[in-house]
Amino acid sequence: MNKQTIACAIFLSTFVNLSVGQQTTALEQRQLSPSQLFVKHLGQYEAFKSLVIRFEVAWDEIDAQSMADLKAVLGKMVAEYNGLSYPTTEDEGKLLERATMKVMVYEELNKLPISVTDTALGPKVERVLEQFRQYQGLLEADILAHQKALEH
User: What is the pLDDT of residue 100?
Assistant: First the structure.
């Protein structure tokens, strides 16, 4: 994937968010039902997952600039998603443990900057990718817990 394609893909993925910004603000002002919140969180999870796949493709193509750009976007998503609340029937201990793990993943990601001029990119990118996958698993657990809560 070349730089222009990645830049275009990132622009298009953020364009949707920009164009519905007012609608999102209006939605955030009113209380969402648990099922509406589930749909919102599911969409956020899918967006995160697709960007992780793009990061993997950039790594396969050894496109350091795209990886750096995608890491920045994914890092912002992680920071935003860390504050989300998921209605669940789980006990507080499990929720707290998962929330703590999310914060730890975020802190680890911040310690691993990716730069075009980096000479030791391979091991660092592998660790970053591992952190993204771990965070994706935590999001999946949140989604499943939310889904179970809706079924009860």
Answer: 92
